[in-house]
Amino acid sequence: MKRNEAISGTGPQKLSAIQVFSTFLRLGLTSFGGPVAHLGYFREEFVYRRACLSEDSYADLVALCQFLPGPASSQVGMGIGISQAGIRGAVAAWTGFTLPSASALILFAYGVTTLQGRAPQVGWLHGLKVVAVAVVAQAIWGMAKSLCPDRLRGSVAILAAALMLAWPGSWGQIAAMLLGGLFGVFFLKAESPPDHASLRIPVGHAVALSSLGLFTLLLIGMPILAGLVPNHAVALFNSFYRTGSLVFGGGHVVLPLLQAAVVPSGWVNKDLFLAGYGAAQAVPGPLFTVAAYLGAVMQPGPTGWAGGMLCLFAIFLPSFLLLLGILPFWEKLRRIHTVRCALMGVNAAVVGLLLAAFYNPVLTGGILSPEDFILGLVAFGLLALWKIPPWLVVALTALGGVVMAAG
Q: Is-above-0.70 flag for pTM?
C-alpha cells in the first residue's frame, strides 16, 4: 500500500482495543513537545506507519477536535480509538496516552517537598524543548502540503497564524477557525468525498445523544450539587469538570485557568503550583495531566493517588462525552457540500494555528542560541529525511541537550 493510500478504519488495518492501548502507551511514553507535537506523532503513526486513517479523515478529525473544548490532541487520540475499536478503543487510547505522564506527575507530587517546589532545569529538559521544534516543524510541513495546496488556502493559513499571534488565547483561536470556515463556504469548492476517506464510527446515535445529555447534566448539575453537599471531593470534581468543559486552546490555556481555580481558593499554594507547571513541561503526553499532580498535592483531601485520579478523570470526562456525542453524526455532516467547503477553510486555518503555536511557545521556548538551532536542524533532518523513529530522536536530542549544558 502506498503512503498516501491509507484506509480509514476499515479492512485489515483495523486495530483491536489492545493494539490501540499498546500503541498509545508507547506514544504516551515518548510524545514530548505538547499538543501540537502530539498531532505530528499521531499523523506519522496512524496515517502513514499503520495506515489506519486517510490524510483527509485525520485532518477532519483534527478540525473537529479544534472546535471542541478540551485537550485537542487527547480528543484526536480518543477519536482514533473510537474509529478502530469503538468506546473500548477510546478508553484504551486515553488510558495509554495519559497514564505515563499522570503517573509521573503524581510521583513527582509525592517528592515535591524534597525539591522545595522547584522543577529541575537541566540540559536534557532543554533538549526536549528543542526536539519539539523539529517535531512541530515536520508536522506543519506535512499538513501544509496536503491542506494548503493552493494560494487561497495558503493565504488562509497565514492570516490565521497572524490572527492568533495578534490575538492569543481561546477567542483568537475560535475566531480564526470560524473565519476560515466562512471563507471556505464562500470561496472554496469541495469535491465529493471519496469512499475511502470515511471515518468509521461504531457508535450508535442513542449512545451519542445519551453522552451529550450526560455532559449537559453534569455541567449544570455539579455546581448545584457542590453547593448543597459540603464535600471537598464533590467540589474538586465540579471545578475540574467545569474547567475541562469550557477551556478552548488546549494545555497551554488550561494551566492559567487551573491556577485561578486552585491557588486563590487555598487548595494549592503558588510554589507547589509552579513546581507542577515545570514538571508538566518535562513529561510526555498531554499537559492536562497536570490535573493529576494538583489532585495529589491538594489540601484538604482526597490527596495522593486518590485525589490525582479524581481530578484527572474530572478534567478529561467532558472531552470524552462531547467526542462520543458528536462523532457519530460527524460523517453525515462532513458529506454535506457546504460543510465540506467550510472544512477546507477550517483545515487551512488549523495549519495557521499550528504555525502560530510553532512560533510561540515552541520556537521561542526551545531555540535560545545558535547551538540550539543546530541541534534542532539535526533533529528535523533525522525525522524528515532519515525517518528515524520519533522516540529515538527525542532521546538523542535530550542527550544533545545534556552535552551542550556540560560544555
A: yes
